[in-house]
Specification:
single chain; alpha+beta; elongated; five-stranded antiparallel sheet; disordered N terminus; 494 residues
């Protein structure tokens, strides 16, 4: 807005045309911003705007429910005039499913799987058509901006959380930033969702902190879970919990052209200057504005992941997987007969990770290289942690000692693939474990595949028991000697 004085003048003029609150909602002529303070018991359940001698009320919260096409978000609205029709759109694209419920009420819904643009903060428009009136416009356009918002706070008053989460650009993608502070200096901040500690937690200083929620994490939280913030102090730890939903941040309505009243975001001089002032390699662009504002500068500053950068990183992966050390790893992980297949599949796994970054925008070549390098490592980590995603397990050959060791080794891989290490004493993913302890991971599988000699199972002499170790954990595989069927697997965690 700062680059266009006409919208700013209109906005300031409208700000003075404050109407009286109506039916429990905040009401202004033109556009209103919903307060981002923590939800209170007596907070308004509706916000309203008035234009063209017509009032529009919408619910403050965008609720989540189960729809015929799966989980969906729903915005409910009502008007002071009878509706004939309506539609949701983002400029030239239809977005949101409009349904007239009664003569003056409607719903606009988005399936959770298609709601990213809405939650990222785009201008959601709602075209409304009314029964003809000689003194009022037959159609009006509403504009809605939505934000993720915390609610139902419980726990320690020593932790303060800003209710509204801001969509920001980090690492070339949009994340939802939760901000807060403690009253008094803390020594550490943690965030936990569903028993799993989040990794994107930063202490800005000894009181302020920020937590970036990935879209999948945020959308899952809106289903009814909560996020737990734990602050550590010299005197002990305290925590605070909150649920997450969606709420209206801005509501407007006009009888004019919405693209003129609310033009698409453009790269403002202030945002551009902020971006170019960031250190080389910066991934966090949140300090320069919300995601919609920052992403408007893509193409004017920075670089994209193009085919040249993509192929260069894929070449690096190919080089790493062509070494003698990588071939030795493959022999241990999947057996000499499947090693080449695994090496080829590992490269394809890396390529799949890189493809997710193709076309993304970064502030500098160094930032782009860092993110492509991370994607390469994620691909390799997955290939090493879950080899059976790439190759088929070996078939049993009863009586063939070498073949049955392959079956036992594959059984260990299948068992660790099925285990939940995040909720164990390790508190991390299998990929993270096998990355940090890759040599031990490979050595444990190699032992089962190449050297372990089975012994008769104590209470079932017709079974063979393979006993070894994986990451220092006692590991067993029990096989029926005559059929080669695996009947028991154990990777023992205390």
């Amino acid at each position: 807005m700062a680059d266009n004085p006409a919208p700013m003048f209109r906005y300031l003029a409208l700000a003075f045309l404050v109407a009286a609150c109506a039916e429990g909602g905040e009401s202004v002529t033109g556009e209103t911003e919903v307060s981002s303070v923590e939800t209170k018991a007596d907070a308004a359940t509706e916000v309203s705007v008035r234009a063209g001698d017509t009032t529009l009320w919408v619910t403050n919260k965008v609720a989540r429910r189960d729809g015929v096409n799966g989980p969906e978000y729903v915005l409910r609205g009502r008007t002071s005039r009878n509706l004939t029709d309506g539609h949701g759109f983002i400029f030239d694209d239809v977005y949101g499913e409009f349904a007239k419920k009664t003569a003056r009420t409607f719903e606009l819904t988005w399936t959770v799987s298609t709601a990213r643009s809405l939650v990222d903060g785009v201008d959601q428009f709602i075209g409304l058509s009314f029964v003809h009136s000689s003194t009022r416009p037959d159609s009006l356009t509403a504009r809605v901006v939505v934000r993720p918002r915390l609610a139902t706070f419980t726990g320690s008053t020593k932790i303060y959380l800003v209710a509204e989460l801001t969509p920001v650009v980090y690492g070339g993608a949009v994340v939802y930033r939760l901000q807060g502070h403690t009253y008094g200096a803390n020594t550490g901040i943690h965030a936990v969702v569903d028993g799993i500690e989040l990794s994107d937690v930063r202490r800005i200083d000894n009181e302020k902190f920020a937590i970036d929620l990935q879209p999948a994490q945020a959308f899952a939280l809106t289903a009814g879970g909560d996020i737990q913030i734990i602050a550590e102090f010299p005197t002990g730890g305290v925590d605070k919990r909150a649920t997450l939903g969606l709420a209206i941040k801005k509501l407007g309505m006009t009888s004019g052209d919405p693209e003129t009243v609310w033009p698409p975001a453009s790269c403002s001089s202030s945002v551009r200057s902020c971006l170019t002032a960031l250190p080389d390699g910066s991934l966090d662009l949140g300090g320069c504005g919300a995601a919609v504002e920052v992403n408007a500068c893509a193409g004017q500053v920075g670089v994209f992941v193009d085919d040249i950068a993509f192929q260069a990183t894929l070449h690096d992966a190919d080089a790493r997987l062509s070494t003698a050390a990588a071939k030795a790893d493959a022999n241990a992980l999947v057996g000499t007969d499947k090693a080449n297949e695994w090496l080829f599949g590992a490269k394809e796994t890396v390529e799949g990770e890189l493809q997710q970054l193709f076309g993304r925008w970064y502030l500098s070549a160094n930032a782009r290289s860092r993110m492509l390098g991370d994607a390469l490592e994620r691909g390799l980590d997955h290939a090493y942690a879950r080899p059976l995603d790439i190759v088929e397990a070996h078939l049993a050959v009863p009586g063939n000692a070498a073949a049955m060791r392959q079956v036992a080794a594959d059984a260990v891989l299948a068992e660790i693939d099925s285990m939940d290490f995040e909720h164990s004493e390790f508190a991390r993913t299998l990929e993270s474990l096998t990355h940090q302890f890759r040599a031990q991971h490979i050595a444990g599988i190699r032992e089962f595949r190449e050297t372990i000699v089975p012994e008769p199972y104590p209470s079932h002499p017709e079974w063979d028991l393979y006993t070894g170790s994986w990451l220092g954990l006692h590991t067993e595989v029990t096989v029926v000697r005559t059929t080669g069927d695996v009947v028991q697997k154990l990777v023992e965690i205390d």
